[in-house]
Amino acid sequence: MLDLTEADTLYAALLARDPAYEGRAYVGVITTGIFCRLTCPARKPLRENCRWFSDVTAAQHAGFRPCRRCWPLAARAEGDRIVSDLTARLKADPTRRWTESDLSAMGLDPSTVRRAFRRHFGQSFLQMARASRLRGGLQTLAKGAAMIEAQLDAGFDSASGFRHAFARLFGHPPHQMRGGAELRADWIDTPLGGMIAIADDQALHLLEFIDRKALPEGLRRLSRLAGGRIGLGRSAATDRTEAELDSYFEGRNPRFTVPVRLHGTAFQCRVWQTLQAIPAGQTRSYAWLAGQIGQPTASRAVARANATNRVAVVVPCHRVIGADGSMTGYAGGLWRKEKLIEAERRYA
Asked: Whose CB has fewer CB within 10 Å in the chain, the N or C terminal residue?
């Protein structure tokens, strides 16, 4: 159990449902025998009925059962029943056209759904569903098919709606990404969601989860650096990236050998190269990272460089956490960071 001198602080965090304690503290309620996250939506217990734990294992050893509302044994996003249910539905039918009326028909409040998804993913469920539908259109365009065919495969009634949604995701309308190009973009499926990979014949240039809020700006920036030469399609580096991601997520091999082309300042590139040296199954702090590049007072600058990494998983910015062990921000969503760190424990 945690030092009881912290009980006042922890109880205040429980009442406030403070997300800063996510993954760092859990509460056991002696009157129910259940333990919860501090962000649990259930009615709050009296202070004298609370017992505090630093991890789920300690809570279970003390005889407490996991709560069935906040699911403390799951990653944070999975602990939200609305989020887990809707993401499962989206995965089962990625081309479905979701509306707020659909959510209401399920007995859900659209504003509650919107807040829950933005809290975990930085965007609404309807935005995620729209991006998911684009996958079919992307694959159709990459084969050289007509725009109208791609639009229909993506489940859009209007050409303007398809072009607008495509441009929001990729930073460019679809016609600008047709034809031959040195850099080519394609979709890669992973257990944590779809990713956009951009590569040339020799190296990987970008790998991002499609629901990352900053993805369009990252694509536009890469397009400028590449002189606008980004098309649709695959390369040998894309195939190699996909094969190594499959091996990584299946628990067979944590190492990535695909060449990576880093686009950033000299300082950013040093940070990203140092990230690649952190072994799978281990984590480091921003202060450690700053020390490794020879600038021990540059923790904040290191954190900014970490946040601007455009090659997710392969350049493992998810392995950097707070000095106190807290799960700090991750552009792909804290739930993915939790999942990635959890999955890598088998490699420790």
From this structure: C
Rg (CA), the chain: 22
User: Which residues face 41 on adjacent strands?
Assistant: none
Helices of type H across the chain: 7-16, 56-61, 81-92, 100-105, 110-121, 125-142, 147-153, 159-170, 215-225, 236-249, 266-275, 286-292, 299-307, 334-344
pLDDT per residue as tens digits for the range 82-121: 888 898 898 888 778 889 999 999 999 999 888 878 766 7
Domain boundaries of the chain, sorted by first residue:
4-66, 76-171, 179-348
CATH topology of domain 76-171: Arc Repressor Mutant, subunit A (1.10.10)
**Is 29's pLDDT higher than 90?**
yes
65 membership: H or E segment, kind and range: strand 65-66
Which two structure tokens, joined as six digits, stand for 241?
Answer: 């990236």
Triad 315, 319, 323: Cα angle to 5°:
140
CA distance 90 to 289: 37
Residue 39 pLDDT level (bands cut at 50, 70, 90) = confident
* Rounded-to-integer distance, Cα 236 and Cα 200, Å: 8
For the domain bounded by 179-348, which CATH number is listed? 1.10.10.10
In our burial notation (b when 16+ CB lie closer than 10 A, e otherwise), range 149-180 reads ebbbbbbbeeeeebbebbbebbbbebeebeee
CB 286 within 8 A of CB 324: no
Catalytic site residues?
36, 317
CATH architecture of 4-66: 3-Layer(aba) Sandwich (3.40)
Query: Facing residues of 51 across strands?
Result: 28
Helix (H) or strand (E) segment spanning residue 6: none
C-alpha span between 252 and 121 (Å, rounded): 28
Domains 4-66 and 179-348 share a fold: no
DSSP H/E element including 34: strand 34-37
Q: To 10 degrees, what angle do helices 110-121 and 81-92 make? A: 90
